[in-house]
């Protein structure tokens, strides 16, 4: 039997955490293993509980969710995927979260089904961005917008461990257009299993944790 996906909930509103817990604990393959109300508590709980996925608020006392994400991602003993779940649909939060290492960005007015799907997708090693959010990332880079430039300035473009093949470059470009594996397979007339293999190699070459981070690094390095 497969172990349930272990989730840590981080939000300074107890009622919201209770709602998220009710939604997630109702799923047979998901288990909420802990809660935190501040960024500092999140860092400590992540280290102690080793969750698979963390639902992270942004605005919290003590330490915000962006800084907490950055510290958790930097911990070599923690391998949790982090979804930023916020009320505020702001580009500064979006870009800061992605560069801190978050693998997802979700708004609190999303449906319960979206929250459950995000947990499962992140646990599977994929990123979770709504297509319109991914398009905003691409558009801001394409336009050279200040928000994208300032975020990119935080670190240099990644050095590839091995150059991308022509096919991998095609797949990466379609990933940057928010296409799923199935959509990429249809567009390139190849099997979905082949797409998964290409995606896996792209993540390895870019040193990325998930699809979202791969797209961000590719945009930063001018690869997509």
TrEMBL record:
Cited SMART domains: HTH_LUXR, REC
Entry-linked Gene3D superfamilies: 3.40.50.2300
SUPFAM superfamilies per the UniProt record, alphabetical: C-terminal effector domain of the bipartite response regulators, CheY-like
Keyword 4Fe-4S listed: no
Keywords noted in UniProt: DNA-binding, Phosphoprotein, Transcription, Transcription regulation
GO molecular function terms listed in the Swiss-Prot or TrEMBL record: DNA binding
InterPro entries: CheY-like_superfamily (IPR011006), NreC/VraR/RcsB-like_REC (IPR058245), Sig_transdc_resp-reg_C-effctor (IPR016032), Sig_transdc_resp-reg_receiver (IPR001789), Tscrpt_reg_LuxR_C (IPR000792), WalR-like (IPR039420)
Entry annotated with the keyword Disulfide bond: no
4-aspartylphosphate PTM sites in chain numbering: 57
Domain of life: Bacteria
Domain Response regulatory: 6-123
Pfam families named among the record's database cross-references: GerE, Response_reg
Annotated ranges, domain HTH luxR-type: 157-222
Name by which UniProt lists this protein: DNA-binding response regulator
């Amino acid at each position: 039997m497969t172990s349930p996906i272990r989730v840590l909930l981080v939000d300074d509103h107890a009622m919201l955490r209770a709602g998220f817990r009710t939604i997630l604990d109702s799923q047979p393959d998901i288990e909420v293993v802990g809660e935190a109300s501040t960024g500092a508590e999140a860092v400590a709980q992540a280290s102690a509980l080793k969750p698979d996925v963390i639902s992270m608020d942004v605005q919290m006392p003590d330490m915000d969710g962006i800084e907490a994400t950055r510290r958790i991602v930097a911990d070599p003993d923690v391998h949790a995927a982090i979804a930023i779940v916020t009320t505020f649909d702001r580009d500064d939060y979006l870009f800061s979260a992605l560069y801190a290492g978050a693998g997802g960005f979700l708004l609190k007015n999303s449906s319960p089904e979206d929250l459950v799907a995000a947990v499962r997708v992140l646990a599977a090693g994929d990123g979770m961005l709504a297509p319109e959010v991914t398009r905003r990332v691409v558009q801001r880079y394409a336009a050279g917008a200040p928000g994208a430039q300032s975020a990119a300035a935080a670190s240099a473009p990644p050095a590839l461990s091995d150059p991308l093949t022509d096919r991998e470059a095609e797949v990466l470009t379609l990933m940057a257009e928010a296409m799923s594996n199935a959509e990429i397979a249809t567009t390139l007339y190849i099997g979905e299993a082949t797409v998964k293999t290409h995606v896996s190699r792209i993540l390895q070459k870019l040193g990325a944790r998930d699809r979202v981070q791969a797209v961000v690094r590719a945009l930063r390095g001018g690869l997509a």
